[in-house]
Amino acid sequence: MSDSDPDLPENDEDAGPTAAELEAAGQSALFGAPDPTPPAPAPAPAPAPAAAAPAAAASQPYRVLARKYRPQTFSELIGQEAMVRTLANAIARDRLAHAFLMTGVRGVGKTSTARLIAKALNCVGPDGQGGATIDPCGQCEPCRAIAEGRHIDVIEMDAASNTGVDDVREIIEQVRYAAVSARYKIYIIDEVHMLSRNAFNALLKTLEEPPPHVKFLFATTEVDKLPVTVLSRTQRFDLRRIPAQLLADHFARVCALEGVEAEPEALAIIANAAEGSVRDGLSILDQAIAHADLDGEGKVAAGRVRDMLGLADKSAQRRLLGHLLEGDARAMLAGVDEQYALGVEPLALMRALMDLVHRITLAQVAGSEPDAPSEEERKALGDFAARLGAGELHRLWQLLLKGHDEVRTAPDPLVSLQMALLRVLHASQMPDPGKLAKRIEEIAANGIVAGPRVDGAGEGASVQAAAPVATAPNVSWAALVDQVDAAGQLRVAQIMRDRIRVIAIEPERLVYEQADSFPDDPAPDIREALFKVTGKRWMIERGTGPDAGAAQPSLREAAEAEAAAEDARIRSDPLVKAAFAAFPEAELMPAEPARVANGNPPWN
């Protein structure tokens, strides 16, 4: 995108109008010509031709860059090559749709594209004999009239201020008449999503089968608000966000045309702040140029652009990230206070840290040199990428993302930023969850438990776990059941607890009697469960004959007998007897077992 004729000499009679002349004519067509000035006195002798240009420039009002460098041809439209190629092929093959829809974020060229399409369809060439072309000449009467906004057959309407059925009805009544002087009668409707539902319904029939001389060009930033019936009747073009590098190159060309010197890093900062929008970027660049003029140098510097946008210095960001990773809380808080005193907003600082982590991650994944404007920054990002692991970077990103949401909604963003970064700082010193889980699995597999040595070897030393119950001289049935339960086999543990009366138990051998009369045999399940927890094959036998009389009660029966004995003991207490005598309908409630942790009783 550049000015349509930035370098043409002004005394060339055959040259086309400049962008300034086109815009002035368009303003006059829309709002009327300015009041005539009183006749000036007799002019002095004409000055030299070299002085004519500065005088003419001084008489023109200043135009912002976003208007001055609006594209006048498709070649000046940046970042939308796919759409331009499609339109060029459609024009070359005479396969033009009757309705086009341009959608995308603000400032990517939707309305400019609609005007360029109007030019391309109605251009007749310098000799007046040309046809529709993807490269309109800009010199013929239709091209000049469309650029000036005065062409009678190109109607541009703002749907935000013309939302009703009556506005659409005027279009429906006018499409019946042929174009006055152009090849096509073109309706450009900007922000078309603002039309009411009734207005859309009224337009559907005309939009589906318009006369052959009518073309509709729609532009919108919120395509999801358009009815499906409208979308199905249009040829849709999704205009993409402009990449930051392409924006930076474009801004460099604009600065060259304006005669302004700018640092590449400053242009990169502006391109990133524009978020893919050419208009937003040019507006920021306009402000940066005015800001740079304050010091008399006229140079757009990166430091001044950061101050203007309230961004953190990149070297300060890297130092802050280093403090986080090193666990230096005091230096980190001092860095936050320093940036806040310089005018950097807490949310902007958090976003800057997130962007830094994102770029480090990309550099690590790509395995190449990081993308940065300065050698110092590339080296720093490369060091971080080599130093940090992928898991650490992802965990750091998640913590910063959570902190970003907290800072955005907190009543005091600075305090929230400090607390969020302190949480990141302490979390960075924690072991990696994946490595910790792997270590726990190794401990479980090797039978190693953490704790003080029982033989007085040393504090915190590790010892081998006690041998499995099944290999001890005196095997405990209750301990075996607890092992099965802890291994997650709850059903088998319940069977062993409720239905098994132990007759004899020794290493790798169990003789039992069932405590119920169920016909199923629990031996296979018990054998498999004991093999999983002990690693050895057990012989499980069901006792018969004289052995059956020596069976011990099941664990459930023993627990019930113990509870009954405890209940009888309590009821035999004289005080309890007196209480029941006074309150015959009273009930004895079982006491909840006390839960004691670290020697302290539980809270009531």
Describe this entry's structure for a reader.
- The protein is of the alpha/beta class and 604 residues long.
- The chain is built from 25 helices and 12 strands.
- The strands form 4 sheets. Strands 2-3-4-1-5 form a 5-stranded parallel β-sheet, with helices on one face. Strands 10-11-12 form a 3-stranded mixed β-sheet.
- The longest helix is centred in the middle third of the chain and has 21 residues, at 346-366.
- It is elongated and about 120 Å long.
- The two termini are 75 Å apart.
- Residues 1-15, 34-58, 447-473 and 594-604 have low confidence and may be disordered.
Look at the structure and give the mean pLDDT. Answer: 78
Major β-sheet annotation: 5 strands, parallel
The helicity comes to 40-55%
What is the SS-derived class? alpha/beta
Number of helices: 25
Low-pLDDT runs of 5+ residues are 1-15, 34-58, 447-473, 594-604
Amino- and carboxy-terminal Cα gap: 75 Å
In percent, how much strand structure appears in the residues? 5-15%
- The global form is elongated
With strands numbered from the N-terminus, the spatial order across the biggest sheet is 2-3-4-1-5
Number of strands: 12
Rg over C-alpha atoms, rounded to the nearest angstrom: 42 Å
SSE order and pairing:
Elements: H1 19-31, H2 52-59, H3 65-68, H4 81-92, E1 99-103, H5 110-122, H6 141-148, E2 154-158, H7 165-174, E3 185-190, H8 197-208, E4 214-220, H9 228-231, E5 235-238, H10 244-258, E6 261-262, H11 264-274, H12 278-292, E7 299-300, H13 302-309, H14 314-326, H15 329-341, H16 346-366, H17 375-387, H18 390-409, H19 413-427, H20 433-446, E8 448-450, E9 462-464, H21 477-486, H22 490-498, E10 500-506, E11 509-514, H23 523-534, E12 539-542, H24 555-571, H25 574-582
Helix pairs in contact: 1-6, 5-6, 7-8, 10-11, 11-12, 11-13, 14-15, 14-16, 14-19, 15-19, 16-17, 16-18, 18-19, 21-22
